[in-house]
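Hey L., structure's done. Input below.
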Amino acid sequence: MRQYHPRLLSYVRSIGGEEDDVQEAFIAAYKAFDGYAEQGKIFAWLKTIARRIVYRRTSASRGATQGVYFSLDSLEEHQVPMVAGGLYEDFASAQGCEEILAAIRRLPKRQQRVVYHRVIGGMSVAETAKVLGMNLSTVKSNSHYGMVNLKHQLKSYLIEGEHIMNCNNAIQYLWQYARNAILPADKAKVEEHIAACTECRDIADSLRELAPHIKPAPQGIIRHYNISFKLANNDVLVYMGCKHHFPNHEEHTQFLIEHNGQMPHYKDDYRMNYDNYMQHLAEFDNEGNRIEVETFESDSPGRTALVYRRIYKIFENHEMNSVATVPKSVNVIYSASPDAPNLHTIGTNNQLGPAARSGLYVAIPAVATNVRIKQGTDVISCGAYQFVYVDAYVAEGQVLNLEATYNIL
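Output:
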């Protein structure tokens, strides 16, 4: 109380509360403190308790049909409490508060009222239902669709205002994020983005479910995979992975340490080729460190060579994790039949070169039905997407093919 009383009182007064609300908040916190685990965020916890106390009291005093919703038009930016749930926490404490309020005002009336209580008021579903005189299912429905609409409205504002990273940057990290092979700073930025972006969140969630299905190869065998998604702009996003065994990894790492990570030009152990139409976006190692690369024309026609140029550590089983986009489905064909618009076809192939265990995984919508594999192994359901795939051991120079059809009603 000695540490937080002045700050909490100031906060409570900014949302229309008074000293009694602060005292009640401290009593409630004292009673619940044995169950409190996040010791580093006590003030945020106290604010949540105090906010609910204030809104319960003010809602009760104004009546269930009026409630705190009607203070929306009169609220000033500095009066808006920190938004519940963490999604817009930093954003709401800065200049974006007025944008949140404006976005809520643009929602349909029922969603507007529910979202205001749930987001600004920090109320539970039951509390919101009581204040607005609605049943629980109506509150849940309006809360869900209202939050979807709110996030959609704020996404462009957040990205354009550089409050969060944009989609082009976020997609570079989603495979690393899904496998928890990502640096903490990058992880925080990705989580801010996917909280506001449904497309990227669906990709990340599906990748997280897919990852355990991509089994490792035996020691000494190259493990390769390509994972493809059709984006909203019709480009194809591709995550490419290739794991090699390097028994001399310690020697290489020591050399890199001594040369500030600079890879000598005569070394081409860490090299890959890809088709010229691919736009390479990023390269990562096993732990999510970005790798500086150099690209140049390959000896193979129509191919580009990519070689490591700066990296600080080589792992015994080293992963080359590449991210690229392919314009207009050049390599992975997503097409609808002109005679049957509900019938869709996917197709892709890959020739890695050396012998390896290789896998091709192509994402299709979860709502797709009647999936028929012409060439391939099976289908894996992973949240918002299903993955049609082929995964097999290939000989040197062997081409791996995947082809399937499916329906979307």
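The two ends are 60 Å apart (CA to CA). The first strand starts at residue 222 and ends at 230.

-- N.
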